Structures are given as C-alpha cells and as structure tokens.
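Look over this record as teaching material.
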Amino acid sequence: MSFQDTLGQDAAKQMLQTALRSDSVNHAYIFSGPAGCGQMKTAMTFAQALFCTEQVDDACGQCLECRKVLHGNHPDLHLLAPDGSSIKIDQIRELQRVFSYRSESKNPKVYIIDHADTMTVQAANSLLKFLEEPPVPAVAILITENGQALLPTIQSRAQTVPFFPLKPALMLQQLVDEGFAPVLARCAVQLSSGLDGCRELMEQNWFAEIRNVMLQLGKEALGRGSSALVTAGQKVFKAGLSDHLDYLFSLFHLWFKDMLHVQYGKHESIVFIDQLEFLSTHASSRSTAQWVSYMDLAAECRKKLRYNVNGQLCLEQFLIGLEG
C-alpha cells in the first residue's frame, strides 16, 4: 500500500506527504468527499506511512510496522465504523479507554472513524473532548461524504482534506485493467463517483440487463408510436427491474447525450461506443433542442421517483413524452 496506489486525489496526497516530510502532522484530519473516492485507502496509507520505519513520506509496505497494518493487527491503529445506523457514545468511550494506554513504540496512536457524520450528538461531543485532550499522542482521521455535517467545533479543530470525484477516464482504465467489460464500465463510470461504486454496480446481474432494456427502448422510441412503446416498457416490470428505474432514466440521459456528442463530432465522449453506428445514423433525426428536451425529461422522471411517484406511471409518461 502506497500513496501511488491511490487513483487521482493529487491535492490530498500532496497535503499529507508534505506534512509527513516536514514533521508537521496535524492531530486531526477530516477526509471529506463523495463515497468511493479513495478516502479509506488513503487513510490506511497515511497511517502506515506514520508508522513506517523505512520511508519518511510514504509506506514501504515491507517493514514490520507496514506489514502489521497490512495484516490488520497493528496495536496503534484503530478503526471505528457505525454500529447499526450511527456511531454511538459507547464506541467513543471504548476508543478513549484503549487510548489511555501508552504506545509501546514512538508512534502516535491513529484512529480512523468511517462515516463520521453518523455520530450521535453525544458521541460527537465525547469525541470533541478527546480531540482536544488525547491522553497520548494521537492522530484522528474522520471520513465523511460531507465535512459540513460534522459539529462546527470538530471542524475547527481538524484539518480538512478534500477528496473529489474521480475522472471517468481514470476509472474506466482501471476497471478495464481489472477485467470488467468495457461497455458496462463506460456506463458505470458515469453513474458513480468512485471505483467501489462502479465495481458494486457491475457485479449486479441487473445492471447489464437494464442497459440492454434501455437500448431496446431507446431505439424503438425513434420509430414507434407511444402505445407500442408503453407495451414495450412493461417489459421492465415483467423482468423484475422496477427497483432500478432510477438507473434506467440515468442511462436514457446518457443515451440522448451521446446523440448530441455525435451531432457535435465529440466521438471521444460517447458512452455507448458499441452503438456508434446506430447513433451516427439517428443523431440527425432530432434537433439539438429535441435531444436536450429528452434529457430534461429523463432527469425530471428521476426526480419524480425520489418523490415516490409510481414507477410504472413515471415510465409510461416518459415513453409517451418521447413520441414525435
């Protein structure tokens, strides 16, 4: 495990490595950004680098300290995750109890709190006291999708390290290298901000299936009447895909956007690259404004789903809206 193994996040890595090199490591950090952008991996690498006996600003992965982290049995590293839906005060108290014992080495003790924004108010207040007065030298790493959701008093006592959504091209290359199907990966990287989310999506059998259904409906929408389309749309429910309508509308959004990419000659941006021949043939069948209105319609239907509008009704209205 090394900082070089974390994709992207150059600003975060530079901030942490500079602190290691200059021996100015803060007592608390907030790793804030979308899930799956490498926060946990970076946190583990940072902890490993703090303990590493061979390198100053990274983890060698070979020394005894590094190997303990890799094997999950380093006595000075503690991970905390929600117990159920939240991190509770008893968990913070247990952390404080463990940290009341001094480290056997010169290392600071490190604790990583995943989903730190799920702390109860009591847990957060208890952590605040711990941040201010740890009984032993300690480094805290709080991982959250939204740093602003933490208590302002915790934010003011920690250094925020921002994490950003990974660039789709970067994720695509990594996923293809890992052996995932390129046509699925091209869609997944547009629908998730991190590699973990992409992998999870592509490991679901329904993802490839719903992509195929979208392509079928997307093509039929250009040549059939609304009643035939609605009948075709019922396949989604017969196939047991009704729980994933939000992804169906997201894929439609990408499909219509690809039509615009063809119109403007931006072939390098096309998501459904395996459908290039069809896209090239049909992109001029609608005006730019019409494709944009279809994209807006798909976005509006996703919004309706979030407000619990009936899914079948949403899909039928959407398919009727594509007529003409």
Q: What stands out?
A: Residues 3-162 form a domain with the Rossmann fold fold (CATH 3.40.50.300).
